[in-house]
Write a structure and sequence with these properties.
- By secondary structure, the protein is of the alpha+beta class.
- It has 23 helices and eleven strands.
- The structure holds manganese (II) ion.
Length: 511
């Protein structure tokens, strides 16, 4: 449905389909309240302002949000842009909703420009996540609608909003496991950040899809038949087209050659149980030949953002290739809606999983550091250093994660592409400073070679080692490791200077 056509009736219908127990009267009351508050206000496009909170709320329904979040979506600009106060919202809709609205106001106010703006933005999103993650969810929906209506915004501002979405909003959505909103934010922003690349990818994808679609449909139909004939239960088999921005990133990795992209369309097989996932995989493998080394079991070994599915790639027709993904209904909901999938059931287990997820992302040290650089008096003084630290921060915060194991079985989470040096510093500064070599899965592993998820890594230390080699800075990936290596280099230089200075005591010492 084109989003500009959404009405209150559409929202209510969608919500009823999704959650029969939703409090429709409450949603309608919130809409009426927002409508009255925004009366007479217009958006840049000339439309009545209420269209914006309405679409925000609609996106929240699409994201499987709960009632208080949808109400906050409808009211999110009321306290900020109208005479209505948070106290009035609280009196009308309760403290919980008013608190979410307050959180949204706080995230929105950014004082700085340039790179400092970026960091402050990031910090505010993180603070909001720490206090109430529902604030972030409303911000995603708010931002998605703003992106969808960027055409009426001056070009420079539109670019800034789009870039911010691509660099801050989408990566946070990704780390929260919210695949659906992440992809939608990216595709909506992509068009404004890199218009030429966007056009190239769109045309390329459209052309390939057009030729592939009938064949893929045939494979989907055959899969349904094969599963039924073999007595394997399934809820749904459908094709999903790769989103444009993620296709773009993959093309960059593969010489811009679309023939090398195997998952342009993936076939998703949704089944009732985990056992059915493996059974369905068996059925598909007996019908079509799998590609070697392309079977990935993210069910027994979930991705660090919680993603679970069974993947395989098969030849289906004279060298033509397609990826299959097998998952349970619950895994599917989690992959699409992330933390929001838990709220629907509102269980203790769901709450715990949300908390753990957020703790994985938030690191108080990072927050403090962001605070420091966001409020630095004169960051331009050492712009190069500042930008360097910013790149490191982005890497630490947004890179996909890997899990590695110590020989004792402890799990350590690191950004993708981390090396044994990063791991050593993640364990302890002393281990980092004295690392001499590493064994990965019992084999010697160069210190500059990235680790992979699931590796068992033993760090070998040399007790007599004086300290880190400054060359490690070239391949250490995490900000933590780099700063420790630099710190050591600084202290040794300081010590050396000190020891080189003439010391009156030393001079007077009897020889
Ligand atoms: Mn808004």
């Amino acid at each position: 449905m084109p989003t500009h056509d959404v009405t209150l009736t559409d929202l209510v219908t969608e919500l009823r389909n999704q959650r029969p127990d939703a409090d429709i009267a409450l949603i309608e009351r919130a809409y009426a309240f927002a409508d009255a508050a925004h009366k007479g206000q217009l958006r840049m496009s000339g439309e009545p302002y209420i269209t914006h909170p309405l679409h925000t709320a609609y996106h929240l329904v699409e994201m499987h949000a709960t009632d208080p979040i949808i109400v906050a979506g409808l009211l999110h600009d009321v306290a900020e842009d109208t005479p209505v106060t948070l106290e009035q919202i609280s009196a009308e809709f309760g403290e919980d909703v008013a608190n979410i609205c307050n959180g949204i106001c706080k995230v929105g106010k950014i004082k700085y420009r340039g790179v400092q703006r970026y960091v402050e933005n990031l910090r505010k999103m993180f603070l909001a996540m720490a206090s109430d993650v529902r604030v972030i969810v409303v911000k995603f929906a708010d931002r998605l609608h703003n992106l969808e209506t960027l055409e009426s915004i001056p070009q420079k501002k539109a670019y800034r909003i789009a870039l911010e979405s691509l660099e801050i909003y989408a990566p946070i959505a990704n780390r929260l496991g919210m695949g659906d909103i992440k992809g939608r934010l990216e595709d909506a922003a992509f068009k404004y950040v890199m218009p030429k690349e966007f056009e190239w990818v769109s045309k390329l994808a459209e052309k390939s899809m057009r030729t592939q679609a009938p064949q893929i449909q045939k494979v989907i139909d055959q899969t349904r038949d094969e599963l039924s004939n073999s007595g394997v239960n399934f809820a749904d088999v459908h094709g999903r087209e790769k989103q444009l921005y993620s296709l773009y990133l993959k093309l960059l990795k593969h010489e811009r050659d679309i023939a090398k992209i195997y998952d342009l369309t993936a076939i998703r097989v949704i089944v009732p149980s985990v056992a059915d996932c493996y059974a369905a995989l068996g059925v598909v493998h007996s019908k079509w030949t799998p590609l070697k080394g392309r079977i990935k079991d993210y069910i027994s070994q979930p991705k660090p953002n919680g993603y679970q599915s069974l993947h395989t790639t098969v030849f289906y027709d004279r060298g033509a290739i397609v990826e299959f993904q097998f998952r349970t209904i619950e895994m599917h909901e989690k992959a699409e809606f992330g933390i929001a999938a838990h709220w629907k059931y509102d269980t203790d287990k769901g709450k715990k999983e949300t908390d753990t997820r957020i703790k994985q992302i938030l690191d108080t040290k990072e927050l403090e550091w962001m605070e420091q650089i966001a409020t630095a008096k004169n960051p331009t003084k050492s712009t190069k250093k500042f930008l360097e630290s910013l790149e490191e921060l982005k890497l630490d915060v947004f890179k996909d994660r890997i899990f590695v194991y110590t020989p004792k079985g402890d799990v350590i989470e690191l950004p993708e592409e981390s090396t044994p040096i990063d791991l050593a510093y993640a364990i302890h500064t002393d281990i980092g400073n004295k690392i001499s070599s590493a064994l990965v899965n019992d084999a010697i592993h160069p210190l500059d070679m990235p680790l992979k998820s699931g590796d068992i890594v033993e760090v070998i230390v040399d007790k007599n080692r004086k300290g880190p080699n400054p060359d490690w800075l070239k391949f250490a990936k995490t900000r933590h490791a780099k700063s420790k290596i630099r710190q050591f280099a600084r202290t040794t230089i300081a010590d050396w200077i000190k020891s080189a200075l003439p010391s009156p005591l030393r001079k007077n010492k009897p020889q």
